[in-house]
Known about the structure:
The chain has one domain (2-135): Immunoglobulin-like, CATH 2.60.40. The chain is built from 4 helices and 11 strands. The protein has helices spanning 2-18, 21-25, 108-119, 155-159; strands at residues 29-37, 42-46, 52-57, 60-65, 67-69, 72-73, 75-81, 88-93, 95-96, 123-124, 128-132.
Amino acid sequence: MCFHKTRTIGALLALLALQGCASIISDSKYPVTVTSSPAGANFEVINKSGVVVHRGSTPGVVTLMSGEGYFRGQTYTLRFMREGYPDRQVELDSSVDGWYWANILFGGVIGMLIVDPLTGAMYKLPDEVSADLGQPVAEAMQGALRIVSINDLDPAQRAELVALQ
């Protein structure tokens, strides 16, 4: 009985020693909610390498990797586009996950220097990113342009004319 408990405890300790704390508690992929004001904008998510990793429209949710490689967090550029509004770009940066520091207590050197940095679990991403597209650039005028000769105007229309200098 005592041997069984010791063996179980030993296996659990070995498991903890071989895993990083952030890898156990956190993840290396995060769902990020993407919104804009006004809603209905198209967006592209571009990684550090300049590769478009996702396209969608707001509001939406995209799952993104938090790490780019060994000890490198990922940074994304989100480009928002909507007809009639200026394009906007927003940076989305990863930051060190607080659970990474728990490796000092639980994961040890292996978790701190190997597992979490390799898996990207040492980084986290914000839950949400948003862009304000501002004011519309221009409103399209409805209607048609009609060109007429001054000779075709009635007296009331001629009275509204303004001389150019």
